[in-house]
Amino acid sequence: VRSENDLITSKLAALHFYQLALPAPIPPEVSFDADAAARGAELFSGKAQCATCHVPPLFMEPGWPMHTAEEIGIDDFQSSRAPDQMYRTAPLAGLWTHTTGGFYHDGRFATLPDVIGHYNQHFGLGLTEEEINDLVQYLMSI
Which 3 state secondary structure label does DSSP give 76? Predict the structure, then answer.
Protein backbone atom coordinates (compact mmCIF):
# COMPACT_ATOMS: atom_id res chain seq x y z
CA VAL A 1 0.00 0.00 0.00
CA ARG A 2 1.48 3.28 -1.08
CA SER A 3 1.13 6.26 1.16
CA GLU A 4 -0.02 9.63 -0.18
CA ASN A 5 3.05 11.04 1.56
CA ASP A 6 5.46 8.84 -0.43
CA LEU A 7 8.00 11.26 -1.87
CA ILE A 8 10.47 8.55 -2.91
CA THR A 9 8.91 5.91 -5.17
CA SER A 10 8.23 8.23 -8.10
CA LYS A 11 11.91 9.20 -8.16
CA LEU A 12 13.43 5.69 -8.08
CA ALA A 13 13.48 5.09 -11.84
CA ALA A 14 15.33 8.36 -12.47
CA LEU A 15 17.77 7.62 -9.65
CA HIS A 16 18.45 4.16 -11.07
CA PHE A 17 19.08 5.63 -14.53
CA TYR A 18 21.46 8.19 -13.00
CA GLN A 19 23.36 5.49 -11.12
CA LEU A 20 23.79 3.43 -14.28
CA ALA A 21 24.94 6.50 -16.21
CA LEU A 22 27.84 7.24 -13.83
CA PRO A 23 31.08 6.11 -15.46
CA ALA A 24 33.27 3.75 -13.46
CA PRO A 25 36.65 5.20 -12.49
CA ILE A 26 39.43 4.28 -14.92
CA PRO A 27 42.30 2.35 -13.35
CA PRO A 28 45.82 3.74 -13.52
CA GLU A 29 47.79 2.04 -16.30
CA VAL A 30 50.47 0.90 -13.86
CA SER A 31 47.96 -0.88 -11.62
CA PHE A 32 47.63 -4.01 -13.77
CA ASP A 33 49.58 -6.13 -16.25
CA ALA A 34 48.22 -5.16 -19.69
CA ASP A 35 49.32 -8.38 -21.42
CA ALA A 36 47.75 -10.57 -18.74
CA ALA A 37 44.62 -8.39 -18.80
CA ALA A 38 44.29 -8.94 -22.57
CA ARG A 39 44.44 -12.70 -22.03
CA GLY A 40 41.98 -12.34 -19.15
CA ALA A 41 39.53 -10.47 -21.39
CA GLU A 42 39.37 -13.49 -23.69
CA LEU A 43 38.84 -15.79 -20.72
CA PHE A 44 36.17 -13.51 -19.25
CA SER A 45 33.96 -13.86 -22.30
CA GLY A 46 35.04 -17.41 -23.12
CA LYS A 47 36.23 -20.27 -20.95
CA ALA A 48 35.53 -18.58 -17.60
CA GLN A 49 31.96 -17.66 -18.62
CA CYS A 50 32.03 -14.47 -16.50
CA ALA A 51 30.26 -12.41 -19.17
CA THR A 52 27.22 -14.64 -18.79
CA CYS A 53 26.24 -12.60 -15.72
CA HIS A 54 28.69 -9.66 -15.75
CA VAL A 55 27.77 -8.43 -19.22
CA PRO A 56 30.08 -5.89 -20.87
CA PRO A 57 30.24 -2.94 -21.28
CA LEU A 58 28.65 -2.23 -17.88
CA PHE A 59 29.84 -5.55 -16.43
CA MET A 60 26.56 -6.11 -14.66
CA GLU A 61 23.61 -8.35 -15.30
CA PRO A 62 20.74 -6.77 -17.22
CA GLY A 63 17.19 -7.31 -16.10
CA TRP A 64 16.73 -9.05 -12.78
CA PRO A 65 20.30 -9.71 -11.58
CA MET A 66 19.33 -12.05 -8.77
CA HIS A 67 20.47 -15.61 -8.04
CA THR A 68 19.77 -18.23 -5.44
CA ALA A 69 22.51 -19.35 -3.10
CA GLU A 70 22.47 -22.74 -4.81
CA GLU A 71 23.07 -21.16 -8.24
CA ILE A 72 26.23 -19.41 -7.04
CA GLY A 73 27.39 -22.21 -4.76
CA ILE A 74 27.29 -20.55 -1.37
CA ASP A 75 25.14 -20.79 1.73
CA ASP A 76 21.92 -18.83 2.07
CA PHE A 77 22.74 -17.23 5.42
CA GLN A 78 22.44 -13.67 4.09
CA SER A 79 19.92 -14.27 1.31
CA SER A 80 17.51 -15.99 3.67
CA ARG A 81 17.21 -12.65 5.46
CA ALA A 82 16.19 -10.81 2.27
CA PRO A 83 12.58 -10.59 1.08
CA ASP A 84 13.36 -12.32 -2.23
CA GLN A 85 15.83 -14.85 -0.72
CA MET A 86 18.39 -14.07 -3.42
CA TYR A 87 21.81 -12.59 -4.05
CA ARG A 88 22.47 -9.78 -6.56
CA THR A 89 25.10 -10.06 -9.29
CA ALA A 90 27.74 -7.48 -8.40
CA PRO A 91 28.76 -4.94 -11.04
CA LEU A 92 32.47 -5.28 -11.83
CA ALA A 93 33.41 -2.00 -13.54
CA GLY A 94 35.69 -0.02 -11.25
CA LEU A 95 36.38 -3.09 -9.13
CA TRP A 96 39.98 -1.92 -8.71
CA THR A 97 38.73 0.84 -6.36
CA HIS A 98 37.48 -1.55 -3.70
CA THR A 99 39.70 -4.58 -3.35
CA THR A 100 40.18 -4.52 0.42
CA GLY A 101 37.87 -5.95 3.03
CA GLY A 102 36.95 -9.07 1.11
CA PHE A 103 34.45 -9.87 -1.59
CA TYR A 104 30.81 -10.84 -1.66
CA HIS A 105 28.17 -9.37 0.59
CA ASP A 106 29.96 -10.57 3.72
CA GLY A 107 33.64 -10.54 2.73
CA ARG A 108 33.81 -14.33 2.72
CA PHE A 109 36.38 -14.35 -0.08
CA ALA A 110 39.51 -12.41 0.92
CA THR A 111 40.92 -11.96 -2.60
CA LEU A 112 39.85 -11.93 -6.24
CA PRO A 113 41.71 -15.22 -6.87
CA ASP A 114 39.57 -16.70 -4.05
CA VAL A 115 36.37 -15.55 -5.79
CA ILE A 116 37.51 -16.88 -9.17
CA GLY A 117 38.68 -20.11 -7.53
CA HIS A 118 35.23 -20.57 -5.99
CA TYR A 119 33.51 -20.23 -9.38
CA ASN A 120 36.19 -22.35 -11.01
CA GLN A 121 35.33 -25.18 -8.64
CA HIS A 122 31.56 -24.61 -8.48
CA PHE A 123 31.09 -24.48 -12.25
CA GLY A 124 33.92 -26.90 -13.13
CA LEU A 125 35.59 -24.37 -15.41
CA GLY A 126 39.04 -25.96 -15.39
CA LEU A 127 40.92 -22.68 -15.09
CA THR A 128 44.63 -22.89 -14.40
CA GLU A 129 46.44 -20.69 -11.87
CA GLU A 130 47.83 -18.62 -14.75
CA GLU A 131 44.33 -18.15 -16.20
CA ILE A 132 43.02 -17.11 -12.78
CA ASN A 133 45.82 -14.52 -12.57
CA ASP A 134 44.98 -13.29 -16.08
CA LEU A 135 41.34 -12.87 -15.05
CA VAL A 136 42.39 -10.92 -11.95
CA GLN A 137 44.48 -8.60 -14.12
CA TYR A 138 41.53 -8.11 -16.47
CA LEU A 139 39.18 -7.34 -13.58
CA MET A 140 41.67 -4.79 -12.29
CA SER A 141 41.69 -3.16 -15.74
CA ILE A 142 37.94 -2.57 -16.16
Answer: coil
